[in-house]
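Lecture 7 notes: from sequence to structure.
We start with the chain below.
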Amino acid sequence: MRVLLADDDELMRELVAAVLEVHGHEAEQHADGGAVWAAFDRAPAEMVVLDWQMPGLDGLEVCRRIRGHPDGRHAYLLVVTAQSGMHSLEQVLDAGADDYLSKPVTPEDIAARLRIAARRMETAAAQRAAEQALREARYLAGVGELSLALQHEINNPLAALLTNSSLLSGGMVPEGERAAILEAIDEQARRIAAVVKRLSALEDPRTVEYARGQRMVDLGPKGDA
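Predicted structure tokens for the same chain:
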């Protein structure tokens, strides 16, 4: 994966970049916070490794900006710092970072953090996929419930409308009964129009049981059971 790396210490950058590349990642190096933020804004990366203390924007400010970026919600942020202690950890996490690593660091420390990051990213990706599948399932269930409701509400008046229309157009209605047939057609058309109107005004859909174990969207007027 592509990893953005920012540290004003060149030797530290080279060390982290070397470990990243050994593990098959592409390391894009930057010497300050402003540069790495610009790089992320231009082309978001899956992971960003940041020194806390840097000229211009520090690592925590970059974390905050990335979390506020439209594509920064799921980026994995690792802060490397010479500071330690619970207060420092709280500051790092409050800025939006996922993890932090205290200096001095060794290649083994970095490799361990990369393994942790990989597992967390895989877990987060699986969770997002499951949530998306659930949203799609709910959407499809909603489509089915709505289709059933429309079928239930429209089929009867539509069948009556089409039957009367066929009788009329086929010349099978006596002259004296045509007015009544036209009135029936108008009534059924108005029933269908009323269903469509309720559908367009549906803001908080609810479902009702249509048959045992089968539900449909309630298109009845508000207040109806």
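Points to note: The mean pLDDT is 81. Residues 2-105 form a domain with the Rossmann fold fold (CATH 3.40.50.2300).
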